[in-house]
Amino acid sequence: MNASSIFQFGNSFILLGWILLIFAPNWKLTQTIILNGILILFSVIYSYLILKDIGDFKMDSFSTLANVKQLFQNDNAVAAGWFHYLTFDLFVGTYIVRKAKELNISRWWATLALPFTFMFGPMGYLIFVIIKTIKTLNSNANNQ
């Protein structure tokens, strides 16, 4: 399987996790399927892509912007980088759903952060932190 095919697979398959988080966040198997299924599979694929070209890796590959640009001239490195994003963004989305349940944040408010987490990673997490902060402040104000 080449890097392009792996990339296409990742883009399609990751949607399963996001669909579960958005439409079935309270289903008893959602967290298990994502954490012990999808994320493990993506971690294996990521490891394969990295280890496949490990001989070309240089210790200073991440030391400058120019070196990172050079590193990502390789299709396998780009696909690995993409799997890195997909995996960690879904992990953060899973954390958001779990934390929202724990803090009794409305499913709808938590779901607001998920598309941003899927598309823009850290921005979605920031939105959730803002929602969580507002919820905490409101809860504290109501308890006084």
Task: Describe the protein's architecture and organization.
It is a single chain. The protein has 144 residues and is mainly α. The chain has one domain (3-143). It contains six helices and no strands. The protein has helices spanning 3-23, 30-52, 65-71, 75-102, 107-120, 122-143. The longest helix is centred in the middle third of the chain and has 28 residues, at 75-102. It is elongated, with a radius of gyration of 18 Å. The N and C termini lie far apart (60 Å). It comes from Emticicia aquatica.
**Separate helix tally:** 6
Strand content: under 5%
Q: How confident overall, as mean pLDDT?
A: 93
Total domain units? 1
H and E order: HHHHHH
Number of strands: 0
What value does the Rg take, in angstroms? 18 Å
Q: Which structural class fits the helix and strand makeup?
A: mainly alpha
Low confidence ranges: none
Topology:
Blueprint lengths: L2 H21 L6 H23 L12 H7 L3 H28 L4 H14 L1 H22 L1
Helix pairs in contact: 1-2, 1-4, 2-4, 4-5, 4-6, 5-6
Give me some keywords for this one.
144 residues, mainly alpha, elongated
Short description:
This protein is mainly α. It contains 6 helices and no strands.
